[in-house]
Amino acid sequence: MKAIEKKTGVPGTGGIWQRPDSLWEATAPPPPALPALKDAVEADLLVIGGGFTGLSAALHAAESGRRAVVLEASEIGRGASGRNNGQVIPTLTRPDPEDLVATFGPERGERFVALIRDSAETLFALIRRLGIDCAAEQTGWVQPVHSPGRIAIAERRAKQWGSRGAPVELLDRAGISDLLGTDAYYGGWMNRSGGHINPLALARGLAGKAVEAGASVFINSPVLSVERRGDRWVARTPDGTVTAHALVLGTNGYAAAVFPEIRTEVVPVLSWQMATQPLDEAQRRSILPGRQAMSDTHGDLRFMRYTADHRLVSGGALLVPVDGADRLRRIVGLRLASMFPTLRGLRFDHVWNGRIAMTTDYTPRVHQLGPNAFTWAGCNGRGVALSVSLGRELAYAALGRDPAELALPLTEPRPLPFNDLLQRIGPFKLLQYRWNDIREI
Fold it and tell me: Which site in 228, 255, 378, 440 is 20 to 30 Å from 81, CA atoms measured?
């Protein structure tokens, strides 16, 4: 595979993005004190991006005795890792295990399926081992189906994941009603290894633990260029350089301009999150009493989970973001009240948004960028558990382990033609989702 000889560009710098009005900002423990890069340093592994992928890569490299350096353009958790809903989901959005095996072949496909199957347990085990304070609750993840015909989706997924050892359960209409506290759904399935976390707290916690393990994490240090010099990768920031034997790009949907072939193979989609006021005890006993994470089969997704202080975090998508916060308060408020009448008139204390990196087939992309250099892109709304597991695998591959032995379904980058146009018209895909949601397909 041909190496990337040199990439130049000026991505957004730290300190210019407005802090989102997120619940996570209000409740996460403070970040570790981290410097900006002001010197020339050398490392075994250079990691670009201080989100879940990059921090997991740095942590696992450092724990294996290798010198890792992370360059984050802004602050830890400023991108998708700190703005998402915090659901820990050990599946993909659309492709099922048999789809992945058909795409990547029996050997690579099954290894990738196993990584996804174990991704939630991997994350929660890491949180427990390191003692990360991120409001982690491994209460399970449930996907209810919103129309009678879609019960086939739950049956197919429970069967395929269950046959591969996942702790899943198929639920009939009575079972899903008991689990959720609403009769709005026709059945569903559950994976008991899932759950939810405070994502910004997890990102900050991973940064602190990576530093404790021996990694160096630099914030407000955007990468201006990356080039291959001899057998080393060299990254330049406004005030320093990093020279390293290996490279992991962990920016996903926020990919730096220095790697346009990665940035342009995904379509960033704006996703809104919102947190209610704390629910009272009676409401908590009747609404999702087991505190599972929930996201259903609507294309125009309905989802929710509890927080440590008993708020529901839900959200949605909009065709046009104008007055988005106020409009979504009405839209999502009505949706929740239709399922749970006791929530009628509920106040939303926080509304924020962030971008999800989508691919056209809803499948993540994993690439070798050159010698000892790896990346992935396209979380498709499943980035929390997947990012941490893939960050580990990318680090191992970059540091010399045979990628054929890892859960890395490598492909060539496929930049999307007219990507900028797709980003502008992407929100109108919501119309198709809404049309499909009222049909049995």
Answer: 228
